[in-house]
Amino acid sequence: MNGTTKVAKATSNGHLNHEQPPLDHDLHNGWGTLYSANAIKNDERTRLVWEDYAKNPARVEGQYHKLLNEYTTRFASFFGGYWPITFHAHVSDVLIPTTLASLILNTASTCPLVVEDPKLSPLLKDDPEPEKVHQFVRDLLGWTDVHISAPKLATVQGIYGCAFGPLAHSSEEWEYQIIGAGPAPFSITRDDFASEDILLEKLRTAKEQGCVTVICDLVNASDGSIFPPEHYRMLRICCTKARIFLLVDEAMTAIRCGAPWVCQRPEYSENPDLQPDLIAFGKGMGVSGIALNFNGMMMRHLAYTKREQILQTIRFWRSMVTRPIAIPVLLEAMAIVNVAEAEEWPARSEKIGRAFREFILRHAGGEGQGKEIVRGIGAFIAVDREFSKRFRVMAAFRRKSSWARWLPKLDTPAFVDSDEIERYLLGPDAKELRRALASEAEEQGTTPLWCCICGIDAAVVDDWCRTCFLGYCGTEDCKKGFESHTCL
């Protein structure tokens, strides 16, 4: 059960094995949740544990804490010192002001400045005085009553927004806006980046009003637009001066954008003294949650300098729930990190992005002159929505967005070659591959997963294209769009 990370060797044509299609036209991949369909299969360590779990669940459950600790340290190693602390089913579950405030309070209350001080530490005193710890932590963070009783979040304009909760107020989609609940986030607009003085004053106002952290995207998850590196640098400088935590939402961009985190790309990490404090992760990671950077701009003031100190605060937080993450989910998440490192997915994502952009711009021809056809970074690819239709792929859309998000899997070697993409998406092998997918679906009684027009779950309707392996959701508008497509 102590196997190492091993991945299936590529065959002579560069593909993992002959049973996998070299690539397919599902560039939706569950809104980007599938980096690989074979992570556990290709990672010997987790595959052996999974096989043992199928035979003897109780034996593997007895190794729960060992496995959780292994995942925690593997994650921190792969992501360069960001430690996963809290786990959730969806990233919207964690981007809640009260949850983030409690997490920050826990991390501060269990920091070395507290637990190693005989005058404060509940661990070193027979008569703990929690009110002293509480006041010390508030002073350390620069928090007042409002941060405790009515915490808020500050968001940088252009953030994706959540499916529910307070950040749904920030969504561009009316379906999310109408179910937004909780305090609306404090908005930091692009105009606030006109100067450092303007931005700093805005952040100080945000903190005075109870904001516990600023949240930003570096790649807009709706349309692929890029947060300017110079704005990100200004934001970090001003967060430091305003003494407010910075959280980067990497739910869609982790591993996919040329680095473990997109904020670790050279253009966003030019100054090692200006690192974000928290990262929100999810989607293709197999589990959602928050990772802490103890060298972050605010976190470093908590004086975590030793590995044992970090692991202790993580244990304190996780001890408040029975099982932070179930065994099957834990194994999948660990396999993803293991294979991502073994197969060098961050570097591959850059090659995938380069190949797809070459393919797209080749087809754009003159249309690509004077008009933005493609956006994004690495393997987060946003394509003009109308232009995307000609490729007959399944893509991830936001209803109001004029961009289609192409989110290819990261374990597909063929995706790094624009000629292979051409061959299997539109070329001589495309029709055969799609018909094979359609035949398998017929045998299994399934349909294409995603509406090729709007991107939501495809309804179980018999009216789907057996030639292109495309379907639609059942609405009249999407039916018209579907029926207008030209087969391969």
From TrEMBL:
UniProt KW keywords: Pyridoxal phosphate
Stated name of the protein: Aminotransferase class I/classII domain-containing protein
Family: Belongs to the class-III pyridoxal-phosphate-dependent aminotransferase family.
Claim: RNA-binding is one of the keywords in the record: no
Region spans: Disordered: 1-23
Classification via InterPro entries: Aminotrans_3, PyrdxlP-dep_Trfase, PyrdxlP-dep_Trfase_major, PyrdxlP-dep_Trfase_small
Domain of life: Eukaryota
GO molecular function: pyridoxal phosphate binding; transaminase activity
Polar residues bias (residue ranges): 1-15
